[in-house]
Write a structure and sequence with these properties.
The protein is mainly beta. Helices cover 0% and strands 48% of the residues. It is built from no helices and eleven strands. The chain has strands spanning 4-7, 10-13, 18-24, 34-39, 46-51, 58-60, 68-73, 78-83, 92-99, 111-114, 118-123. The strands form two sheets. Strands 2, 4, 5, 6, 9, 10 and 11 form a seven-stranded mixed β-sheet that branches. A hairpin with a 4-residue loop joins strand 7 (68-73) and strand 8. It is globular, with a radius of gyration of 13 Å. 32% of the residues are buried. The mean pLDDT is 96.
Length: 124
Amino acid sequence: QVQLVESGGGLVQAGGSLRLSCAVSGRAFSSYHMAWFRQAPGKEREFVAHITGSGGITRYADSVKGRFTISRDNAKNTVYLQMDSLKPEDTAVYYCARQRFGGIYTTATNYDYWGQGTQVTVSS
């Protein structure tokens, strides 16, 4: 059974930083592309960042490009999201997800396993 467990969320002032972690159980972790999504109150879940199985290619939403960094440690079955220069509009529940093989990486329906989410709140 595959399980994803996020951690690292919290309350931070604007301009601050947080590092989210997502520990993934199950086999063949390095075979799967992974991503982070977020959902703010009253809004749809949106794509944040994506990383290929090897970690060689990363992609970002325009809203976080240059401020967030996605990475992974395949020896630890863990994906990270380093968030710098945080803004109040980054406030949301952040989810990590495992991508199905194929499909558009920005689309949530192309992911088959999700974590429970971790709250990130950025105060102004």
